[in-house]
Amino acid sequence: MNLIEVRDVTKTFFGASEEVTPLRELDFAVERGEFVALMGPSGSGKTTLLNLLAGIDTPTHGSVTVAGEEVSALSPRALARWRTRNVGFVFQGYNLLPVLTAWENVEIPLLLLKLTREQRQRKVRTALQAVTLEDRAGHLPRQLSGGQQQRVSIARAIVADPEVLLCDEPTGNLDREAATATLELLQRLNKEFQKTVVMVTHDPLAAKAAGRVVQLDKGRIRAPGDGDTVHA
Ligand SMILES: Nc1ncnc2c1ncn2[C@@H]1O[C@H](COP(=O)(O)OP(=O)(O)OP(=O)(O)O)[C@@H](O)[C@H]1O
Ligand SMILES: [Mg+2]
User: Fold this and answer.
1) Which of 71, 99, 156, 159 makes a 20 to 30 Å CA pair with 84?
2) Is 45 in the pocket of ligand 1 (CB under 6 A)?
3) Residue 157 confidence (pLDDT)
């Protein structure tokens, strides 16, 4: 069953003087439980596609359905709540708030949900344990290494227990060792915690961690036979 379904999606950005259409009549589907790497040249629309899946942006044409919900049709208010429960987002630059501790950064998404303080604490603890950072809970981001900050951001992405994890170049800023640890963590979240993962990457090693590689090119998924989808 498809957990993610993108149908006939076109995305155009209307600038002051020019239009950019990074995605054109795009069809793309991900089955529940998959770990997909999304590759393609810079500017090919990878981040644009992830943003559509997360409901951070809306398509100009076509539909995006994730976990049975047509994301592209939700109101902004409904979307904020839906996003918290259903998708976790991991950014290349971590996007942690510098004045908050690791614990507080991980707790943020839960503030949108109706939970007791105890329930919140339990979830934050579980998420920090999953990324093996319980002992750094009180540290500020600047007191953590890049790899540790990325793990805090992954803990934040999984804290509300969403089914889908969207990662935009999660190893882009990391050295080999930290990148490998991050990829192993994503694989474990996929296999043990049944997260469906879509990961944008330029890194061939990262792509190897995925079960399937999809190439975006000129706004479309490269057709089969063009070296399109490589099954690991
Ligand atoms: N908010 C926006 N407004 C206008 N144009 C945008 C916007 N976001 C993206 N674009 C344009 O859409 C195209 C695709 O951008 P996108 O960020 O999706 O590429 P990408 O594949 O993620 O590239 P990279 O590998 O460099 O991160 C680019 O030409 C970009 O300039
Ligand atoms: Mg990008």
Assistant:
1) 99
2) yes
3) 96
Can you count the helices (H) and strands (E) in the chain? 7, 11
CATH superfamily of 34-55+74-231: P-loop containing nucleotide triphosphate hydrolases (3.40.50.300)
- How many angstroms is it from 99 CA to the middle of ligand 1? 29
For ligand 1, whether the C-beta of 193 sits within 6 Å is: no
Q: Please give the pLDDT value at position 225.
A: 54
pLDDT averaged per 10 residues in sequence order, the chain, 232 residues: 94 93 95 96 94 94 94 89 92 95 97 94 96 97 96 96 96 93 96 96 93 90 59 47
How far, in Å, CA of 109 to CA of 215, rounded? 31
Block residue for tokens 């006939």 = 8
Structure tokens at 60: 């100009």
Place of tokens 């804290």: 159
Enumerate residues with CB within 5 Å of ligand 2 (an ion).
47
Domain ranges for the chain: 34-55+74-231
Q: CA 159, 121, 150, 142 torsion: positive or negative?
A: positive
